[in-house]
């Protein structure tokens, strides 16, 4: 993107390692022997999308309970089901949701869910960027424990500092 919102027709994007090194019109810099070329004719190449609000592991609950008012859906179906999830369930649900996001052009997501360390592990495995936090609901009887867990999660993630993982 540039300040003029220019659209480049017949452009070239050059990636070196994990960084975009060049964006511009063809022909661009010379292609070297051994370079991988991906023909994107008929496609749009654009910056990655950001999913600003998700509970990515809830992909496991898709279709579990439909056609209900929100509060009834949460209290009678979703929250009881979520209380049965394990960290491994959350990890695999996160990987499924992440694969779907990447397929749709999402390169970064903001997530708040149970077992945030499992979601963080899925981020590290997948290649996506994730802003991760735990559940922070003051109305729950475990609210103080959740707050302590969240503070500990942020501290641990800052110490381990992963370039694609941002604690929230």
Note down, in words, how this protein is organized.
The structure is a single chain. This protein is an alpha/beta fold. The chain is built from 4 helices and 6 strands; from the N terminus they run E-E-E-H-H-E-H-E-H-E. The chain is elongated, with a radius of gyration of 20 Å. 15% of the residues are buried. The model has no long low-confidence stretch (mean pLDDT 89).
Keywords:
168 residues, alpha/beta, two-stranded antiparallel ribbon, 20% strand, elongated
Compact overview of the structure:
The protein is of the alpha/beta class. The protein is built from 4 helices and 6 strands.
Mean pLDDT: 89
The shape is elongated
Structural class: alpha/beta
Strand order of the largest sheet: 3-4-5-6
- Sequence stretches where pLDDT stays below 50 over 5 or more residues: none
Over all CA atoms, what is the radius of gyration? 20 Å
N-to-C terminal Cα separation, in Å? 27 Å
List the helices and strands and how they pair.
Layout: E1 11-16, E2 19-25, E3 49-54, H1 70-82, H2 87-103, E4 106-112, H3 116-126, E5 129-133, H4 143-160, E6 165-167
Parallel strand pairs: 3-4, 4-5, 5-6
Antiparallel strand pairs: 1-2
Helix pairs in contact: 2-3
């Amino acid at each position: 993107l540039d300040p003029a919102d220019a659209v480049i027709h017949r452009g070239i994007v050059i990636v070196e390692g994990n960084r975009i090194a060049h964006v511009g019109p063809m022909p661009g810099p010379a292609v070297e022997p051994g370079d991988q070329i991906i023909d994107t004719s008929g496609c749009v190449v654009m910056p990655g999308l950001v999913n600003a609000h998700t509970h990515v592991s809830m992909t496991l609950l898709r279709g579990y309970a439909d056609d209900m008012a929100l509060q009834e859906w949460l209290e009678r179906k979703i929250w009881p089901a979520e209380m049965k999830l394990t960290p491994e369930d959350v990890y695999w649900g996160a990987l499924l949701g992440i694969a779907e996001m990447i397929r749709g052009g999402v390169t970064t997501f903001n997530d708040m869910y149970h077992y945030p360390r499992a979601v963080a592990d899925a981020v590290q495995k997948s290649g996506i960027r994730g802003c991760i936090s735990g559940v922070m609901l003051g109305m729950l009887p475990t609210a103080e424990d959740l707050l302590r867990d969240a503070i500990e999660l942020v501290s641990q993630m800052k110490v381990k500092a992963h370039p694609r993982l941002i604690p929230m």
